[in-house]
Amino acid sequence: MMRSVFILCFLLFSINCFTQAKVLNLSRSNTERTIQIKEHKRIKIQTFEGKTFYGRFTVIDSASLMIKQNLILLKDIKKVRQKSLFSAIANPFFIIYGSAILVSGVLVIGTGGFGVVIGGVLVITSIPMILIPAIVNNHDSGKWNYSIQIK
What we know:
Elements: H1 2-18, E1 22-28, E2 34-38, E3 42-47, E4 52-61, E5 64-67, E6 70-73, E7 77-82, H2 85-109, H3 115-135, E8 138-140, E9 144-150
Antiparallel strand pairs: 1-2, 1-9, 3-4, 3-7, 4-5, 5-6, 7-8
């Protein structure tokens, strides 16, 4: 009995020790900053040919990865963007809500008087709601180097 429990524990722990984690390394060209994206995380990739791929990625080898049965070489990647499920749901909401606040702010500015101050505040607060979701987490190949690491 004790021997079978020992063998079972040994097998369970040895499987965990010998698994290899594959990550996509993004390293900044001019600094020491690196970002590691683990395999099977949701990303959005734009290639130099203009194609866009979105979904969970799988590492094939040290020079390529796959998203939804599409093979993508690292040298063909123009831009990588991390896309969590929350950001995929929340970003369109923030962009639409920010645009609505921007339009209402411009309309309030048009009324004149004290509306200029209120409208100005609305316009100023709406700009980050529109711009931040559009520009955050972009890793352009001109500034970032891409590599695959097997730990």
